[in-house]
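Predict both folds.
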Amino acid sequence: MKWIYYNPNPENKNVGDCTVRAISKLFDVDWETAYLMLCVSGYYIYDMPNTFDILEDVLKRNGYKRHFIENTCPDCYTVKDFCEDYSEGSYIVFSESHVVCIVDGDYYDAWDSGDKTIYFYFSKED
């Protein structure tokens, strides 16, 4: 379980595009393709590509299901905690204002978001 630097943004920007970075890693596509996936969904739903509704639409269309996590702080369930408990598989986790992709217990992000509290996650349904 570790943080792995991941920023596929062609201009190396890392503010406001965490959803694009997470989708890029999850589906193993470049930043541009991930951005377009979100934009197409946004076009049909009439919403911006970085909103939760658009993220959920893209994930559900690709066989992912949302799961809630009970959190009672100060013992909050963090990205690092999730990685320890889910060491196999690919996931998208959602905190209050951030989206992260986790693959086989490692979290991929442009910065170390391991201490962020998770509220729910998406996993692939069989």
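Second protein follows, with its predicted structure tokens after the sequence.
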Amino acid sequence: MARLRSLLTLDEGERFRLLGKLCAAAMADVMASIQPGQSEQQITAHLAEQTELRGIHPVAIMVASDERIFSGHHPIPKDKQLERYGMVILCRPKRGLVCSLTRCVHFGRPPEALRRKMEAVATIVTVFISITRPGKTLGSVFADAQVACAQAGFPDDWKTHHQAVSSGYEPREFVAVPDLAEDIVASQAFAWNPSIQGAKSENTILVGPDNNEILTSIAGWLTIPIVVNGREYLRPTIHEVI
């Protein structure tokens, strides 16, 4: 059933594109409004409002700030006030399909160690996105991403949190693991979300016959250049508010 759900029709692909735009727009509005002193619960409430206004209903909203970002991968929002660093995770459905994305904001310059982690997850997610193509299996893609984790200096962090998933009518149709012989085909959607303690990169993509389409891009978001196999990609990073 999971495989059948993951094979999207042309109509479902168009619905996924619309859902990605709506989720990205809601996230953009909320991230632009975040200020130090707001509680994680207030940020959550604002994102819930913005998604509901767009006809998107809840599966999960997760928010963490400052030191809490480094203590887990699925943060439950609390009444803690944001001081400098915030991470917002959105997983929302519309007409059954589920879209996921994560964005981070930092007030002032992020520490160099955090910048390095964010560049690492941006590199790993670029590997995922660039090689998630028809003819590959989820296991082979995951194996290449494991190599990317090691090359980025974080060889074991993939063990602490799932790094890649197939999306559809469930937030997680398939979770990519080593040796998974599940073929990738055009029309499937994936939410790659590699994370290293304190940093995460997540977008939802749609696999096309000729290329992969990122459904949750936010115009104007701060990006960094990532080179994979000789090609340069721009990937979202921590949005800095100076």
